[in-house]
Structures are given as structure tokens and as C-alpha cells.
Amino acid sequence: MARRSLSPDMEPFSAISASKRQTATGVKDFLSYLRSLLLTNNLIYLYTAFMGTLSLAGSLFDSRGRWQHACARFWSRLILKTSGVQVRVEGLEHVDPHAPAIFCVNHQSSMDIPVLLVSLPFQFRFLAKRSLFRYPFLGWHLRRSGHVAVYRDRPGEARKSLEEAVRKIREGYPVVVFPEGGRSRTGEILPFKAGAFHLAVRSGVRVVPITLNGTMAVLKPDTVHIRPGRVEMVVHAAVPTAGLASEDVRELAARVRNQVLSRFRQPAR
Questions:
Q1: Fold of domain 16-262
Q2: At 242, is the secondary structure helix, strand, or coil?
Q3: How far, rounded to the nearest angstrom, does the alpha carbon of residue 106 sit from its chain's CA centroid?
């Protein structure tokens, strides 16, 4: 059946309708930004201060970090609920909570952290950039909970952080790493840096790739506009590292990145 074209008389009405839709979208986006600025972000600051204080208090009595991790998970649930973010999880059957592993995750948003804390059903440690440890409450929680600061600009400190991460893994703690080294600003998955894979080879533990989709849509980097939405976490089959040496690190990184890319959906711009 042939598609009917608009008559010349109808074209002005079509343009007016499109203009109205564009105006309605702009108003909706402005109201969403206003809600985020005045309500959502202020509530998140409140959650961070309150749960951070509880975490610090509990750390005086819990040297294993169970209390601190429970506080972090509850903090994350509050953030996702307040932000209107829903998470779909796939592939948890690939996770053995009793076996140490390194989880390599693509990184596109600050929302990635609460998504991981809520969705991974076991206690773990982040390998996080050093600047996060400077923030009040959040940084204090990270330090007292045993998360590992990464020093990228000082080779000596970087080696120490690697040694600390190896020790955490050998103590039985899974470690979560963002191997891109920071959040992507383009929506593309950046090249994976070698550090996480040297850590995996040196520790002899499995690498579990994780793909996150949709987190940039709910919170873009360098903004405070949090939008409601659906995100997805896909856990892939583990990649073994037994028998690998330092010369295999580049190939291991490429294999893990390809698995992450296999389920990645490019964010709309």
C-alpha cells in the first residue's frame, strides 16, 4: 500500500505539532533537571553523610568489613530508588561468591557504583582512583572498608596499591576494577589498561567481565542531572588466568574487552 504524503494544506499543522512536541520535551527535561537539582541530589548528599557515619561507626567493631558493605549496599538502594533507576541483572550464575576473582566492568557513569553494589550479591572491594578517597564520608568509608586506592601518577605508590590489591584477593575478597581507567565521555568503551590484568595474572585468579548498559542515560559524566530509567548488568563467563605470564597480559585484556563489547549497546547521543 502506497504511503500517502501530506497535502500542502496539512504541512503547517504537521510543523506546529512537531514544534509542540519539541516544546513539551524541553519542558519535561527542564522539570526533570529541576527535580534532580533541588531534590534528588540533596537527598543523595544526605544519604551519603548518614550512611557514611554509620559505616565509620561500625568499622570500630567490624574488622572484616561486613557492616560497612551492608551500609554501602543500603546507601546504593536508596540512591537507585530515589533516582527512579531500575536494574535488570543477567548472568549471576557465572559468579562463585566463594572464589576470589577480579570483576572488570565498563565505566560510563557515577551511577555504575551503586548499580554494582546492589546487584553483586557478595562482599567485594573496589580498586578506585585515589581522588575518591579525598571526599568527606565517601572517602572515609572507602578507606575504613578496605577498598584500594589507585595511584596512576606516582609509579612507587602504584606498585604499593597493586601489592595491596594482591593481598586483598589472596585474603579471599573479590575485587571490582574499571579497566578503562575512568569514565568514558563519548559513550564508547575505551581501551583497557594493563594494570588489572597484571593483577589477575599475578594473583592467578579468574577475570569476570561485566557489561553495564544504560547508566550514561540516567547520569552523564560531569553533570548533576539524574534521570529515571532502566539499566542492565550482564555478567559474562569467567576467563581463567592459570598458567598465564606477564607477556600474556595484552591478549587477556583484549579477550576480556571483547566479551564486554559483545553485549554493549552504544548510548544514544
A1: Glycerol-3-phosphate (1)-acyltransferase (3.40.1130)
A2: coil
A3: 7
